[in-house]
Design goal:
Elements (H helix, E strand, L loop, with lengths): L11 E5 L2 E4 L4 E4 L2 H4 L8 H13 L10 H13 L4 E7 L2 H16 L3 E5 L8 H6 L3 H4 L9 E4 L4 H7 L4 E6 L15 H12 L2 E5 L23 E4 L10 E6 H4 L15 H16 L2 H22 L3 E7 L2 E6 L4 H9 L2 E2 L1 E2 L4 E4 L7 H25 L4
Parallel strand pairs: 3-13, 5-6, 5-7, 7-8, 8-9
Antiparallel strand pairs: 1-2, 2-3, 4-10, 9-10, 11-12, 12-15, 14-15
This protein binds pyridoxal-5'-phosphate (PLP).
Length: 390
């Protein structure tokens, strides 16, 4: 496999709920949730059952034909997405969901320019990469797609100044994930909505990481009561199988005509069956409410750690999308926590990111917090013994 992933020295072979096990049978509480994919837990029995049943009936069916399972999924999806977002394109990943949104914005408006945010992450295919901010991802692949620019993510005045007669859309993550779990200032997303309405440009929300209940609302935009014109989803939508969704207002999506966009696997019956089961589980098990309640508990426990360990700079996040910012690189902490049975992600160099399955149990959160407590203690001791005063 190409050497493009920062690999951790562990072979994961099994998962259930918020737990995974390695090849030696060692158990971990998984606060990576496979980068937010395992939202309803690893190998949820309802998803397993749906995949098994559908695999026996029909696995693939090109979107050039109608398919019952695809129709069922689209109906279920539209029943939960914000009002007015009711026409979807199905793909296979978050980056593809963003690619479709970019093409859609250009086709709908007849204009080329996309404004994204400083600090944004939208994926690594060429269009999505052009909207992504971090130069370490961008620079080796220049020239990127033209007519992308980045604006400060908390300044509506700068946004107004950035808009030109060529602007097709503003693309934004309601909460920045990879960019360090950053919540926008009050009024920012509402302000973007107003600007877009006034200037007649599209507002695109990338909810690839925040969507489907992760933040304690079905979609993060609901925290601010703002409905975009286009929304991108991916990671958890099909319970662990690859999927991307670009869902838009009907008049917007209708600007794409036959042949304008496609992908061979669009809405495969197998993936749609898993996605139907995922939505059913999400609603039946009240996982969105659970994310809000357990997220508040988890955040509180992390804040307790912050009072105890001065190396923590800030705790932030909503629901079960949490970040802990340090004053230094967190790789060492991640590796030590893994050793003690807790898998944690980073978000940039100095932020720990927690995207656990929403089915995580309180005791499992307690375990992660006590692992982190012990690791931070060690880290502080090592840092104070390294200090020039000693
Ligand atoms: C907000 C956001 N958009 C897009 C993507 C890209 O998704 P994928 O890795 O499935 O292409 C990610 C991935 O982390 C993401 O967090």
């Amino acid at each position: 496999m190409a050497n493009v992933f920062a690999r951790r020295p562990v072979v994961i072979t099994r998962g259930k709920g918020a737990l995974v096990w390695d090849i030696n049978g060692k158990e971990y509480v998984d606060c990576t949730g496979s980068y937010g994919v395992a939202l309803i837990g690893h190998s949820h029995p309802k998803v397993v059952e749906a995949i098994q049943k559908q695999a026996e009936r029909l696995i693939s069916c090109h979107a050039g034909f109608y398919n019952d399972m695809r129709t069922e999924f689209l109906q279920k999806l539209v029943s939960i997405t914000p009002k007015g977002l009711n026409k979807a394109f199905l793909s296979n990943s978050g980056a593809e969901a963003v690619e479709c949104a970019i093409k859609l914005a250009r086709k709908f408006s007849g204009k080329p320019e996309i404004i994204a945010m400083m600090g944004a992450f939208h994926g690594k295919t060429m269009g999505a990469l052009s909207a992504t901010w971090d130069k370490k991802y961008r620079e080796p692949f220049q020239p990127l797609v033209p007519e992308f620019k980045h604006v400060s993510p908390d300044n509506l005045e700068k946004m107004r100044e950035a808009i030109t007669s060529k602007t097709a859309a503003i693309l934004v993550e309601p909460i920045r994930g990879e960019g360090g779990i950053r919540i926008p200032p009050d009024g920012f997303l509402q302000g973007l909505r107003e600007i877009c309405d006034e200037k007649n440009i599209l507002l695109i929300f990338d909810e690839v990481q925040t969507g489907f209940g992760r933040t304690g609302k079905l979609f993060a935009c609901e925290h601010w009561g703002v409905i975009p014109d286009v929304m991108c989803l991916a990671k958890p939508v099909a319970g662990g199988l690859p999927i991307g969704v670009t869902i838009a207002k009907e008049n917007v999506m209708s600007s794409l005509k036959v042949g304008d966009h496609s992908t061979t696997f669009s809405g495969s019956p197998l993936v749609c069956a898993a996605a139907c089961a995922t939505i059913e589980v999400l609603l039946k098990e009240k996982l969105v409410e659970r994310a809000a309640a357990l997220g508040a508990y988890f955040k509180g426990q992390l804040e307790n750690l912050q009072s105890k360990h001065k190396i923590i700079r800030e705790v932030r996040g909503l629901g079960l999308m949490l970040g802990v910012e340090f004053r230094f690189d967190v790789l060492n902490i991640i590796l030590k926590a893994m050793d003690k049975g807790a898998l944690i992600l980073d978000a940039g160099r100095n932020v720990l990111r927690f995207l656990p399955p929403l089915v995580i149990e309180k005791e499992q959160i307690d375990k992660v917090v006590s692992v982190l407590d012990a690791v931070l203690e060690e880290e502080e001791n090592e840092r104070s013994s390294d200090s020039p005063a000693n």
